[in-house]
Amino acid sequence: MATATFDTLRYANRLKTAGVPDKQAEAESEALSEVLEINLKELATRQDIVELRKDMEQVELRLNARMDAQRENLRREISDSKAELIRWVVGVGLLQISLITALLVKLLPS
Predict the structure, then answer these.
(1) How far, in Å, CA of 52 to CA of 46, rounded?
(2) Residue 24: closest CA among 12, 6, 35
(3) What number of other Cβ atoms are within 10 A of residue 12's Cβ?
(4) Nearest to 89 by CA among 81, 100, 79
(5) Cα 27–29–31 angle (5° rounding)?
(6) What is the Cα–Cα distance from 18 to 9, expressed in whole angstroms?
(7) Could you tell me which of 16, 10, 7, 56 has the C-alpha nearest to residue 36?
(8) For residue 36, which of 8, 17, 13, 76 has the smallest C-alpha distance?
């Protein structure tokens, strides 16, 4: 937890010097001290930041591993799709050759 000191007496004296009534100056300095104390509890320490960085590095490593696995899956699927496409093209080509040959045989006089 972050720690800092706030001199309420010094702040109240500054307010009094500026013409703020005594009671009001003391109340304002106490209120500001409470606000600063609450806000300091919410501040991150160096240790918090170091731990957060470590956690983020671990998350990054896991994400990179997942992305690598997804890339590999995508490569595999693309490769499979290419092979299947080639099979279809070759099959359709053979079918066309067969049809053309059959038509030629039928149309040519014997």
Answers:
(1) 10
(2) 12
(3) 22
(4) 81
(5) 65
(6) 14
(7) 7
(8) 8
> Is the pTM higher than 0.85?
no
pLDDT tens sequence for the chain (110 residues): 455 677 888 888 888 899 989 899 889 888 888 887 776 777 778 898 999 999 999 999 999 999 999 999 999 999 999 999 999 999 999 999 999 999 999 998 76
* Residue 29: count of CB within 10 angstroms of its CB: 22
Query: For the chain, which residues make up each domain, given as ranges?
Result: 1-43, 45-110
Q: Structure tokens of 18? A: 């500026």
Phi, psi of 69 (to 5 degrees): -65, -40
